[in-house]
């Protein structure tokens, strides 16, 4: 262990594993350690089901009706992948896709006045949707055509909108869209968690809606993908990538001390030995004196023996409850997957509800979502503190990831990865460069 590394990584959450893989591909000597005996850290998938019961202190063992414990791989943090999003690009470029199989999520739904509706994201769906009246549909169709054609470098497509100055509120007003349509556009298509975006320049929102539409166009049913056997497969895939490029992995390693000299990282002490390094990547749990709490997220894992009502018996779906619909500041999310994804016993469904905590009674906050899932056979409730680094790492060379948020996609996680990469290397993350480095090892024909 008394060796010198370019980078030591602590924790096997997805963020840490992707950065470990990227740094290994870049030719860095990487040592990756975790105090746990399994991959994934906070973003693990728990198997067998008995382990989930133990983790949440549920007395007894799962009933026989739950099937074999080994048939379950239950995510602790629910997220889907945008088919055209940043994580899929990282998976394709690094060829981690060779270790994984994905399924398309069958539908995306939005909550309005106590009921759920399929999110219309094509012109045909918009015209058929019962979410809007006839005249509203026409206006929404015009808006979608405007977004699809929008190119900030082509003045003809802008229709008088300045992408860097016109706010999204003004764009909605231009197309005379009503509050319910604004709700599902901002929260179910652009995937914002709050309404703060309304008074910001419209370019980011337009790009988010384009990402949704382009992701949807790839597979048709929804813009989301999910890996068979659970999200825990993702960090393991990137761990394999790191190993191919010479990265060293050690699970079950207690971390005794982060060793600093003159305010800068020099190594990590484990079991009496020190591994030296120039840079350290870790999740917040390893360096609590370098992070600050920024809120809490409640997540409730629900095991059911039926699909969610009014989703056309989908084996998988997402439901977004926009904050306006339930008098909140943050959206509530429901991710549902099932036995069809090898994460549950035959005929069983797993729905995970999540939101940012706003009151002293978080379970009451998510009641509108839980009501949609009834009856539930077993639920597992967790409330997690959210942390962000107080130290950007430029002096200490310690680079800390942010806690996983309540969103149901990985775009914010990828933004964090790119931000840490830039702080570590001084350059922007370059997808094309990653592709070139990977081809040097695997050749172009992979």
From TrEMBL:
<dbReference type="InterPro" id="IPR018203">
    <property type="entry name" value="GDP_dissociation_inhibitor"/>
</dbReference>
<dbReference type="GO" id="GO:0015031">
    <property type="term" value="P:protein transport"/>
</dbReference>
<dbReference type="GO" id="GO:0005794">
    <property type="term" value="C:Golgi apparatus"/>
</dbReference>
<dbReference type="GO" id="GO:0016192">
    <property type="term" value="P:vesicle-mediated transport"/>
</dbReference>
<dbReference type="GO" id="GO:0005096">
    <property type="term" value="F:GTPase activator activity"/>
</dbReference>
<dbReference type="GO" id="GO:0005093">
    <property type="term" value="F:Rab GDP-dissociation inhibitor activity"/>
</dbReference>
<keyword id="KW-0472">Membrane</keyword>
<comment type="function">
    <text>Regulates the GDP/GTP exchange reaction of most RAB proteins by inhibiting the dissociation of GDP from them, and the subsequent binding of GTP.</text>
</comment>
<keyword id="KW-0597">Phosphoprotein</keyword>
<comment type="subunit">
    <text>Interacts with RHOH. Interacts with the GDP-bound inactive forms of RAB3A, RAB3B, RAB3C, RAB5A, RAB5B, RAB5C, RAB8A, RAB8B, RAB10, RAB12, RAB35, and RAB43; binds RAB3D to a lesser extent. Interacts with DZIP1; this interaction negatively regulates the interaction of GDI2 with GDP-bound RAB8A.</text>
</comment>
<keyword id="KW-0007">Acetylation</keyword>
<comment type="similarity">
    <text>Belongs to the Rab GDI family.</text>
</comment>
<protein>
    <recommendedName>
        <fullName>Rab GDP dissociation inhibitor</fullName>
    </recommendedName>
</protein>
<dbReference type="Pfam" id="PF00996">
    <property type="entry name" value="GDI"/>
</dbReference>
<keyword id="KW-0333">Golgi apparatus</keyword>
<comment type="function">
    <text>GDP-dissociation inhibitor preventing the GDP to GTP exchange of most Rab proteins. By keeping these small GTPases in their inactive GDP-bound form regulates intracellular membrane trafficking. Negatively regulates protein transport to the cilium and ciliogenesis through the inhibition of RAB8A.</text>
</comment>
<dbReference type="GO" id="GO:0007264">
    <property type="term" value="P:small GTPase-mediated signal transduction"/>
</dbReference>
<dbReference type="InterPro" id="IPR036188">
    <property type="entry name" value="FAD/NAD-bd_sf"/>
</dbReference>
<keyword id="KW-0343">GTPase activation</keyword>
<dbReference type="GO" id="GO:0016020">
    <property type="term" value="C:membrane"/>
</dbReference>
<keyword id="KW-0963">Cytoplasm</keyword>
<dbReference type="InterPro" id="IPR000806">
    <property type="entry name" value="RabGDI"/>
</dbReference>
């Amino acid at each position: 262990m008394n060796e010198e590394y370019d980078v030591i990584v602590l924790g096997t959450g997805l963020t840490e594993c992707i950065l470990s893989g990227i740094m290994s591909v870049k030719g860095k000597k990487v040592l990756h350690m975790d105090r746990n005996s399994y991959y994934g850290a906070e973003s693990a998938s728990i198997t067998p089901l008995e382990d989930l019961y133990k983790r949440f202190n549920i007395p007894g063992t799962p009933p026989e009706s739950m099937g074999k414990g080994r048939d379950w791989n239950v995510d602790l943090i629910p997220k889907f992948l945008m088919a055209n999003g940043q994580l899929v690009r990282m998976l394709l470029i690094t060829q981690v896709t060779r270790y994984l199989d994905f399924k398309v999520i069958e539908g995306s739904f939005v909550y309005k006045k106590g009921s759920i509706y399929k999110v219309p994201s094509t012109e045909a769906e918009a015209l058929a949707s019962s979410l809007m009246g006839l005249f509203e549909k026409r206006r929404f169709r015009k808006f979608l055509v405007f977004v699809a054609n929008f190119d900030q470098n082509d003045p003809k497509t802008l229709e008088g909108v300045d992408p860097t100055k016109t706010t999204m509120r003004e764009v909605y007003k231009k197309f005379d869209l009503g509050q319910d349509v604004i709700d599902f556009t901002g929260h179910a298509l652009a995937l914002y968690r709050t309404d703060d975006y309304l008074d910001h320049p419209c370019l980011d929102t337009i790009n988010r809606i384009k990402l949704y539409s382009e992701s949807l166009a790839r597979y048709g049913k929804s813009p989301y993908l999910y890996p068979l056997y659970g999200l825990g497969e993702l960090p393991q895939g990137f761990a394999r990538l790191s190993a191919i490029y010479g990265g060293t992995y050690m699970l079950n390693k207690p971390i005794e001390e982060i060793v600093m000299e003159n305010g800068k990282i020099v190594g990590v002490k484990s079991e009496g030995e020190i591994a030296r390094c120039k840079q350290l990547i870790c999740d917040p749990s390893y360096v609590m004196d370098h992070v600050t709490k920024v809120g809490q997220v409640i997540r409730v894992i629900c095991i059911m023996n039926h699909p969610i009502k009014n989703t056309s018996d989908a084996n998988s779906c997402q439901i977004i409850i926009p904050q306006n619909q339930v008098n909140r500041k943050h959206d509530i999310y429901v991710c549902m997957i099932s036995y069809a994804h090898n994460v549950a016993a035959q005929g069983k469904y797993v729905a995970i509800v999540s939101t940012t905590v706003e009151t002293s009674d978080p379970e009451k906050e998510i009641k509108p979502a839980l009501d949609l899932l009834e009856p539930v056979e077993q639920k597992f409730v967790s409330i997690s503190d959210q942390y962000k680094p107080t130290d950007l790492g430029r002096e200490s060379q310690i680079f800390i990831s942010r806690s996983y948020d309540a969103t149901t996609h990985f775009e914010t996680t990828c933004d964090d990865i790119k931000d840490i990469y830039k702080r570590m290397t001084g350059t922007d993350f370059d997808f094309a460069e990653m592709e070139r480095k990977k081809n040097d090892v695997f050749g172009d024909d992979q």
